[in-house]
């Protein structure tokens, strides 16, 4: 990939032509960007919610207006079909919009009830921007994934420094250029380009948080690097998503969703479908439907291609290995086989009867392959889905709402689609993220805004208590009163901001709490 020690090129996965050349930025260059970002962050946060909203909505409008131009770039660098690139951009536009419109309501200062012992305090939580957020992104959804961090971090009042994948730097440059076009005053969004070492440098450049999207092994390196400085991390890592199909499911619909979820973007989707657990009663019918749909797909780089070539050449060997391992362990290829794994394009592969401890079940394949295995019932389907170390998302197809809701509650994942695939991605108010080896932390929705802010708790005394609680002047009786008030025997009722005590246990004469005022005849 790199052509010299100082620069690298991005290539078209279709024909290998050079798309663009970028500098490999070293640790000093990355740190300088973060330092510039810190100045920009103070200006940006001082603008307040409304001014930031206005600018982010201009960014949204610009991306929407020039979406075809951006889609061309995604198509060229990533290799996915134009329509898929456009869909990714449309979803991203929705997220920019949501973050801009909702930042104030989610992050505004809010009051909390102080409770009985601190009834004299006005208590508030305020949410403050972190400062500079480092965003590290992958190449498979080079717009949607970074925007999930960038739009929400900016809306919360942070500056960002973005390190795109070495496979899609031109898309990254386009996005940062667009932000700078609508926010020309300060570099609130900056691009740093390079290979993995540039991403590693960003982790150690003094940022206030790293928002990482990429593979689990790299996520672990990022976390280890950030541990040195206690820099917080948000990790959106790999997946091994399953589709669960019940015996009364709409099989046509389930097969359509599983096929699109498995093969679109050449299977290079973090929430891509890699496994299906289908009720044994409908297994044959379902497998036949999926196989027919998979055989109809036409991968390649033409205008009508179902999906494109593999973006990252090294993934081809992983796919080959997973298919070989599955077949050697007794699995059966229903569509395609080892011969489907070409040098650029990988033809659709559908496997069945694959042992649950094989690589194709336990590890992320990230290619156009799908394993369909039969199960006794939905309980077994949930158990098998949960057996993987990953826990990003899952889909459940059933005729019964109760069955789907039960499975959704039991699945050890961050997101579940019922009778559809991936639709949670389109609901901007829903958080996005995984569990286990799929990472932690959330982008999107209110949780996604809160990820890029730190809470600060404040209390302000409204009136002085006659008997101090946190003072060396506290009388031992005060502690006893408080102990009794908080014991289960004292029924304490808070009413309209006033405190009353229902039938308190007997205290010494003259000591008690009435209508928010301590009465203590013997201080
Ligand atoms: P990688 O982990 O290879 O790379 C991700 C990013 O990290 C790239 O920008 C990469 O730079 C950078 N990087 C590499 N090494 C380091 C390092 N030591 N320190 C800091 N940054 C580093 O993932 P891919 O780009 O191959 O993306 C595919 C993976 O991403 C899949 O596992 C997929 O499941 C996951 N993913 C997860 C999503 C989610 O939301 N959970 C969404 C989309 C993808 P460079 O490219 O230059 O090496």
Describe this structure in words.
The protein is α/β, with parallel strands linked by helices and 523 residues long. The protein folds into three domains: 7-12 and 19-237 and 446-455, 3-Layer(aba) Sandwich (Aldehyde Dehydrogenase, Chain A, domain 1), CATH 3.40.605; 241-427, Aldehyde Dehydrogenase, Chain A, domain 2; 466-519, no CATH class. Helices cover 39% and strands 22% of the residues. The chain contains 15 helices and 24 strands. It has helices at 27-65, 67-78, 82-107, 144-155, 169-182, 196-203, 216-227, 251-263, 283-295, 315-328, 359-362, 378-386, 401-410, 445-450, 476-486, and strands at 7-11, 18-23, 110-112, 121-129, 132-136, 159-163, 189-191, 209-213, 233-236, 241-245, 273-279, 332-335, 349-352, 369-375, 390-391, 393-397, 415-418, 435-436, 439-440, 453-461, 491-495, 498-502, 511-514, 517-520. The strands form seven sheets. Strands 12-13-14-11-10-16-17 form a seven-stranded mixed β-sheet, with helices on both faces. Helix 1 (27-65) packs across helix 5 (169-182). The radius of gyration is 28 Å and the shape is globular. The chain starts with 6 loop residues before the first strand and ends with a strand. The chain binds NADPH dihydro-nicotinamide-adenine-dinucleotide phosphate. Residues 136-141, 145, 163, 165-166, 195-196, 199-200, 203, 213-215, 218, 221-222, 236-239, 270, 312, 364, 366, 392, 434, 438-439 line the site of NADPH dihydro-nicotinamide-adenine-dinucleotide phosphate. NADPH dihydro-nicotinamide-adenine-dinucleotide phosphate (NDP) binds at residues 136-141, 145, 163, 165-166, 195-196, 199-200, 203, 213-215, 218, 221-222, 236-239, 270, 312, 364, 366, 392, 434, 438-439.
């Amino acid at each position: 990939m790199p052509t010299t020690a100082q620069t690298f090129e991005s290539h078209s996965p279709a024909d290998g032509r050079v798309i663009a050349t970028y500098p490999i930025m070293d640790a000093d260059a990355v740190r300088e960007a973060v330092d510039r970002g810190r100045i920009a962050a103070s200006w940006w946060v001082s603008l307040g919610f409304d001014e930031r909203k206005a600018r982010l909505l201009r960014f949204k409008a610009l991306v929407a207006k020039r979406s075809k131009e951006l889609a061309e770039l995604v198509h060229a660098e990533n290799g996915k079909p134009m329509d898929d690139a456009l869909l990714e951009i449309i979803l991203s536009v929705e997220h920019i919009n949501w973050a801009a419109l909702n930042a104030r309501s989610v992050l505004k200062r809010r009051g909390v009830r102080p409770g009985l012992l601190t009834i004299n305090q006005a208590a508030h939580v305020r949410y403050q921007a972190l400062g500079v957020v480092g965003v590290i992104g992958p190449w498979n959804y080079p717009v949607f994934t970074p925007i999930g961090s960038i739009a929400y971090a900016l809306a919360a009042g942070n500056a960002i420094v973005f390190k795109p994948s070495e496979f899609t730097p031109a898309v990254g440059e386009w996005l940062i250029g667009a932000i700078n076009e609508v926010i020309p005053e300060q570099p609130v969004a900056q691009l740093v380009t390079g290979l993995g070492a540039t991403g590693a440098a960003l982790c150690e450049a003094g940022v206030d948080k790293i928002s990482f999207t990429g593979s689990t092994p790299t996520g672990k390196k990022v976390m280890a690097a950030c541990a040195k400085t206690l820099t917080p991390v948000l990790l959106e890592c790999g997946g091994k998503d399953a589709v669960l199909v019940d015996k009364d499911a709409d099989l046509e619909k389930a097969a359509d969703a599983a096929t699109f979820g498995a093969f679109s973007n050449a299977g290079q989707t973090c929430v891509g479908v890699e496994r299906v657990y289908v009720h044994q009663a409908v297994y044959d019918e379902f497998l036949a439907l999926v196989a027919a749909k998979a055989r109809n797909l036409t991968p390649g780089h033409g205008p009508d291609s179902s999906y494109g070539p593999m973006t990252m050449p090294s993934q081809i060997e992983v796919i080959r290995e997973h298919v070989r391992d599955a077949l050697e362990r007794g699995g059966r290829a229903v569509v395609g086989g080892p011969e489907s794994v070409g040098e650029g394009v990988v033809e659709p592969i559908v496997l069945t009867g694959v042992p649950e401890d094989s690589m194709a079940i336990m590890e992320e394949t990230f290619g156009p392959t799908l394993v369909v295995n039969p199960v006794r019932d939905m309980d077994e389907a949930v158990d098998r889905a949960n057996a993987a170390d990953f826990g990003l998302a899952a889909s459940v197809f059933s005729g019964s709402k109760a069955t789907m809701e039960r499975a959704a509650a039991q699945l050890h994942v961050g997101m579940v689609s019922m009778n559809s695939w991936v639709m949670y991605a389109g609901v901007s108010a829903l958080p996005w993220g995984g569990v286990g080896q799929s990472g932690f932390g959330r982008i999107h929705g209110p949780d996604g805004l809160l990820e890029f802010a730190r809470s600060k708790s404040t209390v302000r005394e409204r009136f002085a208590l006659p008997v101090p609680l946190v003072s060396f002047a506290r009388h031992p009786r005060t502690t006893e009163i408080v102990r009794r008030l908080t014991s289960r025997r004292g029924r304490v009722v808070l009413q309209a901001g006033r405190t009353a005590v229902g039938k308190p246990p007997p205290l010494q004469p003259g000591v008690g709490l009435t209508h928010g005022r301590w009465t203590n005849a013997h201080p």
